[in-house]
Amino acid sequence: MQTRGYNSTDTRNLMQATFTQKFGKPAYDWQLNVSEALILGLDCIVVAGTGSGKTIPFMLPLLGDDHFRILVISPLKILQQDQASTFYLFRSSDCNVCFFFCKQDLKNGVFHAMFLGPEMLLEHEGFRDFMREHNILKNIAATVIDEAHCISQWSGDFRKTYGKLEKVRSLLSPGTPLLATSATLCRASFMDIQSKLLIDAEEAFLLNLGNDRFNISTSVHKMNHAEDYEALLLHVNLKASTLDELDKTIVFVNTVRPTLKACRYLRDKLHPNLHSAVDYLHSYRSSRDKRKIMRRFRQGGIRILIATEAAGMGADIPDIKVGIQFGVPPSLTVLKQRLGRIGRNTSICASGVVLVEKSMFQAVKKRRNKTSSLNTFMRQCSNTARADLQ
């Protein structure tokens, strides 16, 4: 394709050659397709499994154009830091990344990627005034809404700003494309994102690669009650005395309180040498603690991490072998997101475990019995009506 001086073949070849030279392997065709769509100014929605490489498409345009700048709206600081590290690796010393508030770099325009939370962009008046004064957002070539499922999951009472992201368009130059990415988007969430981001499906590039993870086996197990931490022991090697004997494991809990309780319980059950190999992470821990814990977990010093959503979202750690959901998750979408953090290295046979309170099984059984009784009643009514007609 060639139009208005743009040559598709040359652009793709340049991105592919530079990427291959840097990483020793080619980019996937779908990654090049998304990158090219952004360069051409098309809005995009991409659904692809955790660890599939959704970050690459908005990095690739940077390889062929030093003036290409992107804005990445990301829900968690720990995720912003992780992605910033990837950008540094991607562009090496040539890459300038801004996250939090790098005033001087922003003012001078010496950045390629800027990472922000939605609250900073839409609600921080001082930051918006600064950006407007120096005309920074008008020079953004593309905007990325990472973990876009948060628009549906969090835009209620939790983080209302996620329901106002359509306002981002008013801050950008007309025609600036948006890329929304997620590993899990049901049809309702997909439609919600289109509506809230003002994406016209007829004019956008939509890609759904699915999110099946062939190397993850999932099983459901009963636990006696909501704080039955003993149920975790069946999935932990209690005989271990060294780090290598413990599989790298992440345990997801739904609220903050169980993180510390589960951590203490497992430390008490493991060999004293391994007490520091178990830690916990939630949104109330300091930024310094979060960085330290995630670094140790990535490097293998921590083998079992008990965490809320603060750790799970976007954590790029390829060798997590076991993922445990402690208690019924808020939704199947959340469960898919959480268990998608394990087995990113597809050579690993990973195990996803869902621990569910016994009472939930009983509740489901009662609902089934009611449904069965209703079906029987409806059949009887149907038979009676048929007999009356005869």
TrEMBL record:
Domain Helicase ATP-binding: start-end pairs: 35-203
According to UniProt, the name of this protein is DNA 3'-5' helicase
Instruction: Please give the Gene Ontology molecular function terms for this protein.
Output: 3'-5' DNA helicase activity; ATP binding; DNA binding; four-way junction helicase activity; hydrolase activity
SMART domains attached to this UniProt entry:
DEXDc, HELICc
Q: What top-level class of enzyme does the UniProt entry assign?
A: isomerase
Give the family this protein belongs to, as stated in its UniProt record.
Answer: Belongs to the helicase family. RecQ subfamily.
The regions listed as transmembrane in this protein's record are: none
The Helicase C-terminal domain is annotated at 228-390
Q: Which Gene3D superfamilies match?
A: P-loop containing nucleotide triphosphate hydrolases
Q: Which taxonomic lineage does the organism of this UniProt entry have?
A: Eukaryota, Fungi, Dikarya, Basidiomycota, Agaricomycotina
EC number per UniProt = 5.6.2.4
